[in-house]
Specification:
This protein has 5 helices and no strands. The chain has about 100 residues and is mainly alpha-helical. It is extended and about 50 Å long. It starts with a helix and ends with a helix.
């Protein structure tokens, strides 16, 4: 629970990169034929990428501030939840559901 701002920033960057959320914007940025933005310029793709990034940072920041001010860090010390395990379980369940539905 005692990490610096740089460590927290690096960990957040690694976790967000690991699950590939930014990859959903790749067809727009690359201008692939299957994307809805076929005729858009590369600058439009980068604008979409920028808007998405700014929106995610604003929402994450707002949620972090609200949780910190209402719940505080004391909850983390008392009731730690292993989010990595929860996230892995959610991915496995989504994969199983995809196999069963598909």
């Amino acid at each position: 629970m005692q990490v610096g701002f740089g460590d927290l920033t690096l960990w957040s960057f690694l976790m967000s990169s690991a699950h590939g959320a930014g990859l959903m914007l790749a067809p727009v940025v690359l201008g692939l034929p299957d994307s809805d933005a076929r005729h858009a310029t590369p600058w439009a793709g980068f604008a979409v990428l920028g808007i998405h990034t700014v929106a995610m940072f604003l929402v994450m920041g707002l949620v972090a501030v609200v949780v910190y001010q209402t719940v505080g860090v004391a909850l983390l010390r008392r009731a730690w939840l292993n989010l990595d395990l929860l996230w892995a379980l959610a991915l496995v369940l989504a994969g199983v559901a995809t196999l069963l539905i598909g």
